[in-house]
Fold this protein.
Amino acid sequence: MAGITHADLESLPPPAPDVSSLLSAIEAQLAAGQLVDLAAVMRTAASALRRNEVSFANRPVLLLDLPIHSKIEHELVEALLSSATEVLATLPAEDEKSLAAMKALPGPVERIERPNTNSPLGRLRQYLFSQVRPPSGERDDQVRMFSAPGEGRECVEIARRILEEARSGIRFDQIAIFLRSPTTYSGLLDSALRRAGIPAFFSLGTSRPDPAGRAFLALLACADEKFSAKRFAEYLSLGQVPVLNKRGGPPEGRQRWTTAEDEILGLGLAAPVPANAELPEKVRKDDAVDSDESPQIGGTLRAPWNWEKLLVDAAVIGGKDRWERRLNGLDAEFRLKLKEVISKEPESSKAVAIERDLRDLSHLRNFALPLIKIFSEFPTEAHWGEWLSILQSLAPAVLRGPERVLSILAEMAPMAGIGPVSLFEVRNVLLERLSTLEVSPPEYRYGRVFVATTGQARGYAFEVVFLPGLAEQIFPRRPREDPILLDHLRSRLDSGLRNQAERVSEERLLLRLSVGAVRKRLYLSYPRLDVVQARPRVPSFYALDVDRAITGEVPRVETLQYRADEEGSARLAWPAPVDPNRAIDAIEHDLSVLGSLLNLPAEQSQGRARYLLELNENMTRSLRTRFGRWHRKAWSKLDGLCAPGKETIELFSERRLTRRPYSPSSLQRFAACPYQFYLAAIEGIEPRKEAVSIERMDPLTRGSILHRIQAEFLRELLNEGKLPVLPASLTPTLEQLKTVVQRIEEEYREMLVPAILRVWNDEIDGLRADLHLWIKRMAENPSDWIPRYFELSFGISDGVERDPGSFAEVATIAGGFQLRGIVDLIEQRASDGDLRVTDYKSGVSRTAGSFRVGGGETLQPILYSLAVESLTRKSVTEGRLYYSTSAGGFTERIVPLDAQARQSAEEVLNIIDAAVDRPFFPPAPREKACAWCDFQAVCGPYEEIRVKTKDQKALSDLTRLRGLP
């Protein structure tokens, strides 16, 4: 804009020659791309004016506060005025550079002085930054300063005062907000004005995150970062997946043509995004494909929860083949977990969740693998033209609404010859443009609050003006030299180039322009707290000079801060005003009302704020439910399933223990908490999932591998006649175990494709050590119990890897109760043929001493024994829990199947069956049960406390159950 060429820089000392080379390269690139910069556009306009080639030549011209700060701008204005019949130009007196440029043109320059020092606003205009000491004066409400804790609350306080001014009769379009730091304040101000229902005209438009652009950037990052699963998950989370083809893959042949927008002349065919931009009609129609069976929901792909953590970023590095193997391994892992869950608790809600994950994983594989194949074909480096061609083909295949992304890519067409560049460099260039969506302002500004930069205050006048950000490092900004060409070189090159003194002067001019645009009232504000960095802020010296111009005295900083704090009256701890009438929206109003009641005595606050119950039915239901749960002694429908109707009772008659089978594992939940039993075993509600890091093998996977090895190894020994294991045969038995472990480990490793091999190897080594100790203890403690059946199932259709002697039918024991499940081990005593049932445990032993049903929470030994006795028609003398790992200490707990044990089992089943028959399932957890419950999000963490306030007579059966040995 100063008309400097690369030749002008060559004779200056370093680093000017380097800048000259850079400028020469830029000029060459512009010429090669047939592009021009703004300076060339203005030169062309000036030339056209001199040649009298414009339609408005030879007419009167009005220049209203036009800044003339560069050589090119001066040439254009000179050409414009030379062809005018009459000229009237106005300038603010403090804009010395524009004034000097105007004086260089023909015609008189008149300075109009209209001092008005009778009012604070007049004194401020007259003496702001004045070298003359201002006269003494008084403050009034023409100039008001306030502070707020953070820029966000500052914008809310501005919205509050705009509403107050509007109530006094000031039109919205007679109110302006001038921003020195629009990047910081625009978004916050837009949000605050929307909350308050204030229409606004942002002269520069507003910006908001662009989900389509960010999704596209996430995919490019996935390709660049060696197919990162985390980046692919980020893309899916933004909900921009297009409508898939019939195979569930990316759409094919979906090409879109979009033109680039012209920044200067606005000749682009693509219209700017309006302020009320919404998704195109086609996208809204696409949403109709969402259904339970559809691979999409809400514009995103159904994918297994936390699958990217299961894959692990490092694990998917390596290309398309690695993705395929890991997704196949994840599928196998889910199926392994499903088998383990079904074996222990067939009706478990976890099984439903895993089945859903399997279905979603299929959707993920169908969509992701074709894209990974495309990414694998990306070049390492290419010219921009080739990259643009690749990306323009990719965008319609991965985005529901690719139009804006394609428009931005079209803008890059002049860069086609640049390169070769890597994908990383392409991402960096596109990052800023694709991350945010620029929303154009409305066509007309009237009827709306005017929001602009401080530099745009030229030529405007408003009744009320707000000027936020009068804090250090916000307004004024610290003047800095241009690091490319320092001031001492600028002064040698051209005295008209900006220097440090002019930067300071221009910063002061911005405040003067804002003050000069006020007719009635000026609001100044600043954030007294940097919320992000949690440190205090102080008002800038501009704020001190404002007070000096009004009163004639420079105030103490502490005094100014105190007055601004009192004027703002905004607190970080309670985001609402003291007076409810000053609230900007319903949320603030309610908080304000409640804030005034919190510290009042009960007799004064009782019955207040009742309007909240009448306005919001959800709050009404929530508060009344909470009151009923905590203050009613009787159990009711507010507590759980405690007061069923006739239809519910009839429905539950089909769910009794004599009408449908339950597994012992699910029945154990009842003693821990009846409501947990209802949610998990009867309704099958999926437990809440939590994000976890992969530091250990999944317990279900580890348990499944352990049980598989134990079953196959013992079955092999049985078939070879090597049972029982004796000390003399221990060494060859351990070698045989080593072979079985190696074979099964290799099978699972190939099937599961472990994400982190180190974690897998560590877990297998630990499992191998546990198995060696298990066999050694078996040999050291010989008995006449000979293993006969391994993984024997009953009432479960899945017969994979089950014992050949498994039963398809359910087990019906005394009382008509139906059971189903899988028994880990059944042994037969050599002396009399009686059976013993063993349930292996791979975790920590939480049982102590002798027991029969363990308060209703250890039912597997006795119920499995009764089920096996019923199915085999053979006598079962005892059940056993065997903790077959070092974590459990290789301990065993024996439950003799005597008359007392049978009576206790029948009593437990009768109590649970009676609860199902009523039905009555209160959230009544035993001590510390909530800490391990999957459904704490449903009830909350205080059920152990709340249950003590309820009628304990209704829990007499549950209390009796928990007291059983």
About this structure: Confidence is low (pLDDT under 50) at residues 266-289. The first strand starts at residue 61 and ends at 64.
